[in-house]
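Structure request: DNA mismatch repair protein MutS, Plastorhodobacter daqingensis.
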Amino acid sequence: MMAQYLEIKAQHADALLFYRMGDFYEMFFDDAVAAAAALDIALTKRGRHLGEDIAMCGVPVHSAEGYLLTLIRKGFRVAIAEQMEDPAEAKKRGSKSVVKRDVVRLVTPGTLTEESLLEARRHNFLAAFAQVRDEGALAWVDISTGEFRVMPCPPLRLGPELARLAPREVLLSESAPATASDTVTEMGAAATPLSRGSFDSSSAEKRLCALYGVGSLDAFGSFARCELSAMGAIVDYLDLTQRGKLPLLQPPLREMADRLVQIDAATRRNLEITQSLTGGREGSLLHAIDRTVTAAGGRLLERRLSSPSRDLRDIANRLAAVRFLVEQRGLCEDLRADLRKAPDMDRALSRLALDRGGPRDLAAIRNGLAQAARVAARLQDDAPALLTGAATALQGHDALYAHLETALVAEPPLLLRDGGAIASGYDGELDEARHLRDEGRGVIAGMQAEYVQATGINSLKIKHNNVLGYFIETTATHAERMLAPPLNETFIHRQTTANQVRFTTLPLSEIETRILNAGAQVQELEKRLFESLRAAVLDQAARIAQAARALAEIDLAAALADLACAEDWTEPKVDDSRAFHVIGGRHPVVERALRRQGQPFVANDCDLSAGDSAAIWLLTGPNMAGKSTFLRQNALIALLAQAGSFVPAQEAHIGLVSQLFSRVGAADDLARGRSTFMVEMVETAAILNQADDRALVILDEIGRGTATYDGLSIAWATLEHLHDVNRCRALFATHYHEMTALAGKLAGVDNATVSVREWEGDVIFLHEVRKGAADRSYGVQVARLAGLPASVVNRARVVLEALEQGEREGGRRPKALIDDLPLFAASAAHVEQRAPKTSAVEDRLAAVMPDELTPKQALALVYELRDLLG
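Returned structure:
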């Protein structure tokens, strides 16, 4: 056995080997050590090899999926070796013959299909990057839904595209440069190297033609060599990992970068589009607005937010669908009620295609088609094109639905081997076999009653196990009566255990044969009928997949309509102009958080409309006033509009945005030796080098990570470059008030500020954005609100006043003022520590013990305090 294990393991050295041993998957040697540590299970030993103990651990087959999920999340690949024959067959070859085993599947992060291993509302993409000379291409597939796409992707665009797709695993040629592997790792995906042969474009074309059963790929589009290479690598890898059982893949769709808003990785992270800065879904835009009621609708929403469109026709069609359902509230609610009952047909179909499906996957197809018919019936001809087109795809499945409805029980079991999936009346032979099996069970019960009466032993039972089959069991005391005449002529002794004695009879042996044959026949018939139903479903897989996509499209439109009505969102005007005019804009995530705290969100206007020149707002104001929120909310409004959603504003006119750039917040990258300031400069450089005149750029606190004059000069030059070279629409927040002078020098720059009020030394944030410039940053006041010690705050005020006075008196540099300022250690003598004044009311309250007051005394105290205020 160990020789067989080592032989299989040698073929899959880079994966943990799950070696099937009866009801367990067992691991040995280094695999056992690694798996035991990762799964927190016991590490034991079994036998010896080359003079050393063999480490071993195992997991039960019935709960293996949970262990697989843990291993995959921790970066392991798992090869599953199953028993390919019954142990009884192996014994026929000799008592020491080893059961045949072989790997039936490689489980990797990008090839998961099991429901328990996947997130229902997220795609699980497997991607491949190919490079042919200077050209690159990226292909990706979700084998759990069949989606298959490819796009041209120069090496420099690999990072942003991986950030958009968030694949779990990326295939790279073994000859790919190290930078490609580094980029994949940075994006949080597993990098899997393949041989150069897997990426050969000529072989790839043949693989793809064989997959789709066509002589040429011309019907699917025209693909470059590097695109064929990437797609071919995916098909080759799926053939390897699925051991020849290729999933149902939709014909490849070619995406073009110029049809989507370009968003780089830093911008996605800063805007928290699909995940928050902490890495989870909660706190993201997606989490705040997701009202879809189906898993497929949730996945479609994530795709739309990750890839906003630049196609005005697509945007208009999506907005028209949302508008129609906003106006038809009753229809929208009815659709959502029907959609809530729609299962995930995409993933059920995929499992059936890979022969990993069960009766419940067939039921999911049946129930999904039933809901599809109900949804289609609700949509009339006067609906927008997007909805009527989806309704068409939902129709024409009556025959398959009727077939599945007749064949399947209402609630099938999870596993086919559990039995009872096929409905009574569907197949006469199965009904007859079931009747015999079930009648046999009744006969056994009747025989037990007869034997109890014949022997007078009430505790006599007829039982069954896999070794003896059916047998009669009684206690040793009662057995003496059965072993004595005349009962010994009927009851034949079979086995004696510590406390029981077991018998059989000739009639019992005969009925056992009948029952066993009937039970096996039922299992075989159900398996055959299941395969017949599976084939019928797969025969219409393409049309079922279209229906599944149509349900997702309707679900998304209805969800966005429900969101718009509930949150008072408005339809944006999106056109080919360079306008950007938002009235009463709000940040959807922050507004939601404030609402939970019972606080209102202060809406603000933004006007970056530009003719042929740049349109930039230079935003000043203190920290905590809401500058970053204002910047982000306008970027998100543009993103939502081009994703085809209504937006959180009273009115919005968005001229088509080609690129979205955000440089907000600060973080270092210690793993790559980058300081916070270095990261800031790298991200800023990417914006200045790539932004075109259709871009929307939001920048916050450029240059704050270095010396004051260095930072000011960098921020100044950056703003000039955005205005003169990029000529884009931008929001530029800064604490460098000196920059407000640029508004008078650059035609496309306007000053704006976030309003605050000072009251008795405190700063009150109004969160209102208005035209004009801030006169100060209120940093000392914010520091006091943050809880800095009073001595530090008071000292800061003294230093600030000295610095400002020096500036007024001739611009003395800070260094020249040091001698005029007392040392901090001696500051107590120079900083007047005034005891806070107290009032008579405060003095009186300080002397009160509330718990000791009677109601009458408390009322008297109120009158007394009023008199003191008097």
